[in-house]
Write a structure and sequence with these properties.
With 231 residues, this protein is of the alpha/beta class. It has eight helices and seven strands, in the order βαβαβαβαβαβααβα. The protein has a seven-stranded parallel beta sheet, sandwiched between helices.
Length: 231
C-alpha cells in the first residue's frame, strides 16, 4: 500500500485528508502536537483496515521529523508528504505594527523551516517512490494582501516559493502548493475569533486534493476551488 506522512493531522484539513486516504487503502504516519487527540484520530482511521501510526510531537524538532520518516520507512517508504502543520504567529491576528517578532519567528519556523526540514529528511524515500509527491498547504494570504494576515501570509508565500523551486529541482516528483480556500477550522477561529460567518467544512475540499493525486498534473500552485469547479 502507498504510505503518506501528514503533519497537523489530528483535526481539520489534515484529519479529513487522512481519512480520505485511509478509505483508499493508504498507510499513514500522522503528526500533531496534542497526543490524545491524535491518538483518537488514528484509532478512528484504523477502522478502514490500513496501518495508521500516530506520532505526537512538534515539527520544529529535528528528532521528531526523523522519527516520522523512520516510521514511514518501516511501513514501506514515503509516497506522499503533506506539510499541513501551521502556526499563525499571533492569535488573534494583528496588524504588522503590533506583530510580536517571536510570533513571526514561530510562524516561519513551523510553516517554512520545519516543512523544508521534513522534505529534506524524506527526499531519499520520495525519490525511490514511483509516485513521490509533496503537498504543501498554502493560503490565499500567500498571494493576496489582507490586513492583519501579514506574518502568516509571508510565511505561506515563502513556503510557496520553496515548493516551486523544489518542483524544478526534483522533476521526477510532483510538488504541489495547494490553497484550500476558506474553511471552518480551529486555525481560522483562532486567527479571527470575531468572525462568525459560516465556512465550508475541511472535508468539502478534500476531493480537490484527491483529484491532484489521481490526475498528477505538473508541479505548481493550485487552488482547491478551481479544482472542484473543474470536476
Amino acid at each position: 500500500m502507498p504510505v503518506a506522512i501528514i503533519t497537523g493531522a489530528s483535526k481539520g484539513l489534515g484529519r479529513a485528508l487522512a481519512e480520505a486516504l485511509a478509505a483508499r487503502g493508504w498507510d499513514l504516519v500522522l503528526d500533531a502536537r496534542t497526543a490524545e487527540v491524535l491518538k483518537e484520530t488514528a484509532t478512528a482511521l484504523a477502522g478502514h483496515g490500513t496501518r495508521v501510526t500516530a506520532l505526537p510531537g512538534d515539527v520544529t524538532d529535528p528528532a521528531h521529523r526523523s522519527d516520522l520518516v523512520a516510521v514511514a520507512w518501516k511501513l514501506g517508504g514515503v509516497d506522499l508528504l503533506v506539510n499541513n502543520a501551521s502556526a499563525l504567529g499571533a492569535e488573534p491576528l494583528t496588524r504588522l505594527e503590533g506583530l510580536p517578532l517571536d510570533g513571526l519567528r514561530r510562524a516561519l519556523e513551523v510553516n517554512v523551516v520545519a516543512a523544508l526540514g521534513l522534505v529534506q529528511e524524506a527526499l531519499p524515500l520520495l525519490r525511490a517512490s514511483e509516485t513521490g509527491t509533496v503537498i504543501t498547504v498554502s493560503s490565499d494570504a500567500a498571494a493576496e494582501a489582507y490586513e492583519t494576515w501579514g506574518g502568516y501570509g509571508a510565511s505561506k508565500a515563502a513556503l510557496d516559493h520553496l515548493a516551486a523551486v523544489l518542483g524544478e529541482e526534483e522533476p521526477r516528483l510532483r510538488v504541489w502548493a495547494v490553497d484550500p480556500g476558506d474553511m471552518a477550522t480551529d486555525l481560522y477561529a483562532a486567527a479571527v475569533p470575531d468572525d462568525g460567518d459560516p465556512r465550508p467544512e475541511p472535508a468539502s475540499v478534500v476531493p480537490a486534493f484527491l483529484r491532484l493525486l489521481d490526475e498528477r498534473p505538473a508541479s505548481g500552485r493550485y487552488g482547491a476551488p478551481s479544482l472542484l469547479e473543474g470536476r
